[in-house]
Amino acid sequence: MAADGPSCESAASGRLDFVSDYHSMNDILAAGFRLFCKYFGVILALVLTIGLPCQLLASYVTYAVFQKQFVPAWQTSALLELVFGSVITGGILHALFVDKMGRRARFTECFSEGVRNWLPLCWTHFLVSCLITMASVLFFVPIGTWQMRIIFLLPALILGIRLSLSLTVVMTEGEWGTAALRRSVRLTADKTWQILGLCLFVYLPVQVVGFIGIGMLQTNPEWDTWGMTAGLNTVLRLVSCIIPVCFFCLYEKVIAEDRPDV
């Protein structure tokens, strides 16, 4: 009977860890939605100032130049997001960072800080995108079954989890490039389930709504215009801003756990 003691203790500990992670994720989501609502005006202004022109340009190029071909259209959108989306993310993260210091940041300050940190944000974002793309390259190789190809995505998923705080590190700690990537890897060492939970409850719904919206446009020819597409993508970009907000809350929780006396 004594031999059952450690295994029972391990099982109980595992259940406690899972419950703790579940409640921790709920706290992060609650804090994220609260901050998103608090700074909705700043986020909306950033999206309308930077995101809307980018979406208009991307949609026009998709329809008028590439004739709705998926690959070049996706490449154009990804490039614009890399170059200009980083400013939006940086501005949002600056507002949240300033909020933690007891001050409310205005739109002009957030915009200028996003622009000022453009190079560190863009380069770090580029490195993360390249690493995740290289980790998922086997998925696009026509070998094996679909089940096997999905398994090939696991390295990219793990890498995405470990690098998910990279941009937050850029704006809060001033580290960028490979230094920000290493810092993110260390911060997320034991946060896998919490990050997966955030992706499930925040990132995935945004993507599903986006697919449904694009599908509705394509099934209604009168709506399938570059202007309507740009408007829909701008709304989705606004909603997706909840993602960096929630990951900032995760970052704050990790830092608090590392330095409980602060």
Write the layout of secondary structure elements.
Elements: H1 4-38, H2 40-65, H3 70-100, H4 107-116, H5 118-135, H6 146-151, H7 154-162, H8 166-173, H9 178-187, H10 192-219, H11 226-240, H12 242-258
Helix pairs in contact: 1-10, 1-12, 2-3, 2-11, 3-4, 3-5, 3-8, 5-7, 5-8, 8-9, 10-11, 10-12
Overview of the molecule:
- With 262 residues, the chain is an all-alpha fold.
- It contains twelve helices and no strands.
- Helix 3 packs across helix 4 and helix 10 runs antiparallel to helix 11.
- The chain is globular.
- It starts with a helix and ends with a helix.
- Mean pLDDT is 82; it is low at 5-22.
Amount of helix: over 70%
Low-confidence stretches: 5-22
Structural class: mainly alpha
Identify the overall geometry: globular
Q: Element order, helices and strands?
A: HHHHHHHHHHHH
* N-to-C span: 45 Å
What is the overall number of helices?
12
Mean pLDDT: 82
Task: Please tell me how large the radius of gyration is.
Answer: 20 Å
Largest sheet: none
The share of residues in extended strands comes to under 5%
What is the subunit arrangement here?
single chain
The count of β-strands is 0
Overview features:
mainly alpha; 262 residues; globular; 0% strand
Short structural summary:
The protein has 262 residues and is an all-alpha fold. It has a domain at 16-117 and 191-258.
